[in-house]
Structures are given as C-alpha cells and as structure tokens.
Amino acid sequence: MMKSGWKRILIFMLLLWQVLLLAGCDYYVNEQPEKQPAQQVQEPFRNQDSRGRYDSIGKLGTYSISIPAGVIDGWARYIGAPGDFADPKIKAKYQRPPKTYDLAIESFGFLYRITDGDVYTSFRQTEEDYRRDNETLIPYGKPFPWASVSAYGVYGAAPLNFNFTVQNEFKLAKEITHFDYIQQEQPLYGLTVYRANNGIDPQTGEPWKWDDNAKDILLKKDQAGNIKTYIKCGFTQHKNFCRHMFYNDRWHIQIWISYNRTYLPQWQEMEGNIIKILDSWRVSREGKLLGKQIGKA
Predict the structure, then answer these.
(1) pLDDT tens-digit readout, 201-218
(2) Nearest Cα to 257, choosing from 240, 245, 239, 273?
(3) Backbone dihedral region of 213: left (phi > 0), alpha (psi from -120 to 50 degrees) or beta?
C-alpha cells in the first residue's frame, strides 16, 4: 500500500514537472522579439565570360557599367564601403547593399597597354604578354608599355577640374622648398610646361638630376580656362615616370594613369583610349551591353 502511494506521488510530480516545463518554453517563445523575414532582393542579370566568370557591376559617375571578369586589378570599391584600414568594428557592422547597375562605384583599377589600347585580363593572351614584358623589359631598363589606371566616380557638386590642386601645388613648392614653378615658353606635345626653379637645381646651379619635390608639371586647359589634364613627370635616370590625371565631363569621372615618361607624347591618345574602354563596358540598367566589351576573355 505504501509502495502504491509513493508511485502515485512520483507520477504526479513527473506530470507537474512536464507541465511547468512546457509553460516555461511557451513563455520564452512568446517573449522573444518577432524576427522579420530577410528581405529577398532579386539578383540582377550579370554578364559572363567564356570561363563562366561574372562581370563586376555598378554605376561609375554617369553610366552603368559591366566590367569584364579578370580585368580589375584588386577589386571595385563602392561608395560608403569602409576602407582597407577602417576600424574592424566598423567593418563588422557594415552591410553592403545588393550589387546593382545603380550602385555607385567609388573606384577601381586596371592595366592598360599603351602600344595598342588593350587591357590586361587574366586567362587571356594579355596575361602572358604582361608576364613576358616584366621579364624581358624591366630588368634591362627598357620602356614598359603597361600603364596602371585608376578610375574614380565624381559625385555631387565637386568641380571637374584641377584648378585648386595646381594652385596649391605651386603654393606649397614656394613655402616648403623655396622655389617657384616657372612656365616655359614652348609647349610640349600640346601641354603647357612648368619647371621647378626654371629647371635648375639651386644647390648645384645645373639642371635637376633628381628631386621628388621638383617634378615637371604639364597642364592642359579647356576653352573656359579650367585645368582638365594635370601631369607630373620625374626625370631621374632609373625612375622616369609620369603620373597623369584627367577629368571627363561626360562620364563625371577622374582618371589616374601611371606610366614611363617615354610614352608622354601619347597622352591624348591614352585619354581617348581609356574613355573608349569604359564606353565599351556600358550597359543598360538591366545589364544589356551597349557594345562589344574590350578585354573580355
């Protein structure tokens, strides 16, 4: 009789424990904040190359573009994305918006071959050409025909000229290095030339042989007098390079190019060819190509 009573008490306690457990679970579920289902964003159509690789897409300045896979040197950076050296906490919290043909591109880079207007693309003949030129030209001091190009979208009311940049460059040269940039009488390849201290090293009284602060400055203005092309060239024996920048009003972009000074006479051709390359990557907002892509594998 005692055993039967203990059995009833034990069964009753087990049933009570199960009821309390279920009630607690129900309370926990009901008290949790309701989670909204993740918003599904339809992926836009993206062009592919012969290897099945997808293009990089977005909007550069004025136009939507589809950059062939294997062309970008590094990656495309979009407006609002944290930089490489941003606080890791900021990077962790950043939620990149879905990539569309309207997503504003801040910048991206690629390699351009000056001699024929082509671009470097991995898994294309240009990859082998670039490797061969590195091995056969650079070690022997021969002109390297590849230029490094960076494209920057310009958004908002930022001026599309280098007026302030050049003015500030001349001002800093006078304040820090204590010499003026003097305009030369003769233009060079259609560019107005300015040389530091009229091309003379004040310490030696001879033409500059080397000085990072005394690069030649070459400019091109539009009809309104705004500086649209700004080139700085070194003149050392071993590192004779130009950093070439220009604006394009139609695209609303700034382009940076770095190349061997040997190719300076082709500065206008370079500007035209780079815009031609970008034009070949233009697409509709739905991703339809408007022409044949230069550099597609």
Answers:
(1) 888 888 887 777 789 999
(2) 245
(3) alpha
